[in-house]
Amino acid sequence: MTSPAAMSLSKKGGRSRDNSNSEAAGRLANWQGPDSLVYSVGGSESPDVEAMRADPNLDDMQSSLETASLKDEKDAKLLKKTSVGSVVVDPTTKKQVSVTVPGQNKAKFTVPGRPTPKADLDVTKELKKCKEEGAERLDLSKSQISTLPNTIKELTQLVELYLYGNRLCSLPPEVGFLTFLQTLALSENSITSLPDSLSALTRLRVLDLRHNKLQEIPKVVYQLRSLTTLFLRFNRIRIVEEDIRNLVNLTKFSLRENKIKELPRGIGQLVNLVTFDISHNHLEHLPEDIGNCVNLNSLDLQHNELLDIPETIGNLRALNRLGLRYNRLTSVPRSLANCEHMDEFNVEGNNISQLPEGLLSSLSKLTSITLSRNAFEKYPTGGPSQFRSVYAINMEHNKINNIPLGIFSRAVALTKLNMKDNQLSALPLDMGSWTNMVELNLGTNQLTKIPDDIRSLEKLEVLILSNNALKKLPNTIGELKKLRVLDLEENRLESLPQEIGALRELQRLVVQANQLTSLPRTIGLLKNLQYLGAGENNLTSLPQEIGTLENLESLYINDNPELHSLPYELAYCSNLQIMSIENCPLSQIPAEIVARGPSLVIQAAGNRLCYVQLPCFQPTQIVVLSVLVPPASTNYGVKCSCSACSQHGERHLQIAVPTVYT
């Protein structure tokens, strides 16, 4: 029997069974129906259907075309991934900058989020109870059902039937008796076919068949002319029949993650289609008839094998989002300029070397442009006007050797620029005019100098200069008062300016793999510093002032061949969790360092440590020491001298041996 907590009942009211299309999809997203009798016996929500009732986990297109369309249009918002070179876009609110700090997310223990399925139900009893109560909604989801009883035909009053997350391979023909049914949710089963009797469901609006084992779209689906929402994501479908043209009322259609190689011309008959997701398939071409779907707002074609896009795409003037990432395109049609409502242009992961003249300028509502991982050798033609409303540009992984002078002169909203992995050897003279910049990624280029004018970027919070050829930094770097991340890894720096101590908001400083012989004493002023990476340099010592970094959590000073000792002031870094001193010629670690904090991991492989004194331990303190030892050794040569260990065995010191001498 179903517990009271699992069953929600209310008196049957006057709600019409012939609901509108939006109501049918809306109830699938979040059914509450205060005027209707509801009978729910299923287990917890599956991840897919939870996504249909709330904001989804967003995919590569940075939004779910399926679920966003199920939300009330007034409340729906576009959510996008954030990274250096990408932004959060919410066109209904004032634009805000969201800064992503590389490495800020710490590892956390997690537990599986999927709830434990309920025990097998007595489905026959549940159907009987539903009939007796006259419920119009039946939820048997996640109930481990492998077959549906024939008595389902007696529930002729049903309007919504949820069976997701079960073990169904098929449905009984008797489902065809449910002629008032408007919503049928069958996702996360093992369904391979549907009975022809479903053709009697002339009121069916929403059919969800995601995550099943369909080899083809069942013939009966093409007969369900009342459908407005059809989800077929993650099946094994290879062919879409010409009969798809029958579903003229479709507004939401997902074929994502199947094995489809082509679309029929009949797709152009779906003139009411608003969102269409056919991403993650094997399409090489689109039928020109796609241009007849003039109400399309979102078209997701990413992760296919598209070689071209038809010019008729320009007929889709209502298009707001177009996903073209990761295809095999060498160009895009000029007619895209007609799609003036687009707010994002993203062709990442193609082989495009240039855009049609003035294309970006015509798309006046663009706020984000992503051209990364293509074959661009220069910026798109169109001048400064093409970036006038843009606040994020990602040109990562191309072959661009310069940023044209004045190209951003009208880009007053530009806050994020990602030029990582190009061929830049210098920065433009007007760099100082980028005054609204918040994230700037210039990593993996050929830069030898940073202009003094960088001081003008007063709003800068993230600056990535890794893997260049820099020998020094300008003293004006200290004027970037809001800087939180400074990445200088793999350059040729021999020293850091004293002015770096003025970066009081700095949380992450990476100077790994340079030629530094010392760190400035002013580093002790970086009170918010949490991560300091200074390994693979030529450091001979660390400044005593490092002990004032009370928020420091990770310290990497590994592979400094001239570093023979550590200052005892490190003991004052009370939040230190990881200290890597691997491959440094240290013979001892000051006792004060390892005696602080509830837990400290010291990575010390490849040193000359022979004795570690660990006084004043609390019972809960643990130090993990990673060392190298000779292969035949039974005495690691590293011992704890605290009284607890000497009396009761090594309680606090754990020796880890990652490798051995050869």
Automatic annotation (TrEMBL):
Please name the Pfam families in this protein's record.
LRR_14, LRR_8
Q: Where are the transmembrane segments?
A: none
Q: Please, which domain of life does this record's source organism belong to?
A: Eukaryota
Query: Which SMART domains does the record cross-reference, listed alphabetically?
Result: LRR_BAC, LRR_SD22, LRR_TYP
Specify where the region named Disordered lies, as residue ranges: 1-60
The record's keywords, sorted A to Z, are: Leucine-rich repeat, Repeat
Q: List GO terms (cellular component aspect).
A: cytoplasm
Which residues does the UniProt record annotate as the domain Disease resistance R13L4/SHOC-2-like LRR? Answer: 242-419, 476-560
Q: Which PANTHER family match?
A: LEUCINE-RICH REPEAT-CONTAINING PROTEIN, PTHR48051
Q: Which family does it belong to?
A: Belongs to the SHOC2 family.
Briefly state the protein's biological role.
Acts as a Ras effector and participates in MAPK pathway activation. Probably acts as a regulatory subunit of protein phosphatase that specifically dephosphorylates Raf kinase and stimulate Raf activity at specialized signaling complexes upon Ras activation.
The molecule here is called: Leucine-rich repeat protein soc-2 homolog
Query: Which species expresses this protein natively?
Result: Pomacea canaliculata (Golden apple snail)
